[in-house]
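User: quick one, fold this
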Amino acid sequence: MSTHPSRLDYSRQSPELFKKYLDFGMAFKMDEALALLVDIRASQLNGCAFCLDMHVKQARIHGERELRLHHVAIWRESPLFTPRERAALAWTEALTRVAPEGVSDALYAEAREQFSEEDLSTLTWRVAAINGWNRMNVAFRNPPGSKDKMFGLDKAGLT
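Assistant:
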């Protein structure tokens, strides 16, 4: 259990913005399993306990294998991910930890081999959205699992 003092609930302090950002985050038309891998990896990189907890539970509800969830952090060494998933995870890392030189042409080419222009654009918006959620939840230390019932995550059977 966290020993940090409570912080404000940004969803209650800015309900209109929260609703609009939630709508934005739900607007993506992409493979749900891939989207959750992206959300999990960005949340790992950003140290967002709330989002990592949420997206692991969502992935389990959607049938993701437990071993793959454990391997997201080591995806480069793991044989469990497809070339498309690897490209998405590499893209996620590059956009989450933006290097001073930006995204390399080699990484862009790798992503374009796996994704159409529209799909890469959608993936990029997805990465931007999860990074925003991560920043909100890191800033206000939303406790992991605190909204499970509201989002139906209690169905994951993970406690």
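User: anything notable?
Assistant: The mean pLDDT is 92.
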